[in-house]
Amino acid sequence: MKKVLLLAAASEAATGLALLIVPSLVGRLLLGQELAGVAIPVARVLGIALIALGVACWPGRTALCGMLTYSLLTTAFLAYVGIRGDWVGPLLWPAVGLHAVMMILLGRAWLANQSTAQAQQENH
Predict the structure, then answer these.
(1) pLDDT digits (tens, 9 = 90+) for 55-92
(2) CA-to-CA separations, 115 to 42, 81, 109, 112, 118, in angstroms, rounded
(3) Is 85 left (phi over 0), alpha (psi -120 to 50) or beta?
């Protein structure tokens, strides 16, 4: 069971990385057409989500790690898109802000979990 989950996590993360780096190629190989225009950043956010899914399903990791990964990468990517100015709709910057807030909250929860786990290890 763990080997199957590891294979699935690695496969999804690899697909996500490919979508993040070469979305048009992935579109052509999967769908028979290259992605263009606004489909490129949408595909990259999908790639980020697949990477986060891979992290969340990786043995020894948690959903918290996956969501933190997603929030961190999505915040960075959407801010990059906004700074470049190619596709800036009225909700882009609020989405960046929302993801940044979620990233901070998830990061604090992750750090608290790490501290708790470390304290429990020291007590045993």
Answers:
(1) 999 998 999 999 999 999 999 999 999 999 888 899 99
(2) 36, 35, 10, 5, 5
(3) left
- pLDDT tens, position by position, 89-107: 999 999 999 999 999 999 9
- Pull the structure tokens for residue 75: 């915040």
Residue positions counted in the chain: 124
pTM here?
A: 0.90
Question: Given the structure tokens 């998830």, which residue do they identify?
Answer: 106
Query: How far apart, in whole angstroms, are the C-alpha atoms of residue 60 and residue 41?
Result: 30
47-86-48 Cα angle (round to 5): 10
